[in-house]
Specification:
The strands form 2 sheets. Strands 1, 2, 3, 4, 7, 8, 9, 10 and 11 form a 9-stranded mixed β-sheet that branches. By secondary structure, this protein is an alpha+beta fold. The chain folds into 2 domains: 80 residues, Alpha-Beta Plaits; 93 residues, 2-Layer Sandwich (Alpha-Beta Plaits). A hairpin with a 2-residue loop joins β9 and β10. It contains 3 helices and 11 strands. It is globular, with a radius of gyration of 16 Å.
Length: 183
């Protein structure tokens, strides 16, 4: 049976086990996970936090990452500014980025979520409000959610992937992981 790991990736950690590009070592998955044979199913950029799924099953890894299997990826996103319903509707309709149009996203405003403190903290500006939104996408382009919010004029300040399909981050502390059964 496939082994599936749900990991709460902290800010600043690479979604890989080694860092070959930087002359100064950066934190990687190997800092937190010492299990041979598991690999990330998809990626989460270094500036983002939250759920990363790892598995030792190559076919399952491909199915988790492939948009055709319809596993929605839900993000809690703190943006600079206060988007209106009209702004959010643009994301719901799909926006056109440099690499083409996005699929429609499920988007709504949310209250400030109860999350762990981020290190380093998000910058705070008295003169510019910030807003939290929840976005669910069914594709996984490079830095897609950040590019989508910037496209409509609201840069992302903090991005936490909360779920992938039925797998959720509930109860998993940053830098911790659990093993789950395939769903």
């Amino acid at each position: 049976m496939a082994r599936i790991i749900l990991f709460n990736k902290p800010f600043g950690v690479l979604s890989q086990f080694t860092d070959m590009r930087s002359p100064t070592p950066r934190p990687t998955l190997s800092t937190y996970i010492d299990l041979p044979g598991v690999y990330p199913a998809g990626r989460l950029d270094r500036d983002s936090e939250g759920l990363l799924v790892l598995t030792d099953d190559g076919k399952l890894q491909a199915r988790i990452a492939d948009p055709k299997y319809k596993r929605g990826k839900t993000y809690l996103v703190q943006v600079e500014g206060a988007p209106s319903e009209a702004d959010l509707q643009k994301l719901r309709d799909g926006v056109t980025l440099k690499d083409g149009p996005t699929r429609p996203a499920k988007v709504h405003l949310i209250d400030i979520p109860v999350l762990w403190d981020r290190v380093p903290p998000v910058r705070f500006r008295k003169s510019v409000p910030d807003t939290w939104i929840e976005i669910t996408v069914h594709e996984g382009r490079n830095r897609q959610v950040r590019r989508m919010t910037a496209h409509i004029g609201f840069p992302t300040l903090r991005l936490v992937r909360w779920s992938i399909g039925n797998w959720r981050l509930d109860g998993i502390a940053p830098g911790s992981w659990i093993t789950v059964d395939p769903d």
